[in-house]
Amino acid sequence: MGRRRLLIVTGKGGVGKTSVTAAAAIAAARSGDRVLVCEMDGSGRLAASFGLGELGFDPTTVSIGAGGEVQIDAMSMDTERALREYIRLFVKIPFVDRVGSLARIFDYVADAAPGVREILAIGKVCHEVRRDNYDLVIVDAEATGHVVSQIDAPRAMSEFVHSGVIAEQTGWMSEILEDPVRTGVVVVTLAEDLPVAETSELIHTISTDTGVAVASVVVNRVPEAGLDPVAVEALRGAESAGVPGAATVVASAARADRAGRVLGDLLDEAGDGVAGAVLPEVEADDEGGIVVALSERIDALVAHLTGEDEARG
Fold it and tell me: Most buried of 12, 111, 227, 243, CB within 10 angstroms?
């Protein structure tokens, strides 16, 4: 069995999608993988997760740890730059970089043919998988409301274009995206009503409307209650008696219990073969510290998703 080469991380805004993406990249790189992580929405949150001011289209090598022993390449999507690269590589126009701004041409084409921006963005990601410079490409994808059109762009385009260069390009992109051995979507959520509802809807939409597989569901920011049922009942009594701090611990235990039930329900909806994980609330001095701490809790899931656990076994 081959190993998964592309992980597309998505989730409702505010659930910690970018932190989970960065943590997964660190975990994979720590295991020895050559990793490229790509931010799709240009928000700058991925750069902040690594303690950087900004990321560009050209990958930046990020060193993690006191000695910089863990290294990751990180980039931010730029669809105009992706268009230049596409023209140079596939349309075989060698001097495209000397041409003036393609912004006007790009905007015209994008407005005339919906899906062009999505094709260029996801196509760049698939190209990095195809060229084989990295063991794993991890995408900090669009949020739940936009990710489906992005991952489904090659298939949607192929319904309208059946021959020629574009058909050839969308063909190999779809082969990568729709191969569950190579590609999987990781959906991040919280154990709260609205994120859970959106996650459930997203899992259903991806499964029924695209050829891309959901690989994992992650419930993020779950309190580490660490209490057995007997201890919780004792604390409930202490809460009733007004013991300081008891109510907070009982509430955390209840949230942790709900997270487990939410994960189970979402995995049932997602179907067989979908991995699940619960990640804890992490406190640190900065976002970088949070991401490094999370990476130590997500390493088992990443190893499972990439097949590294089987290789070790």
Answer: 12
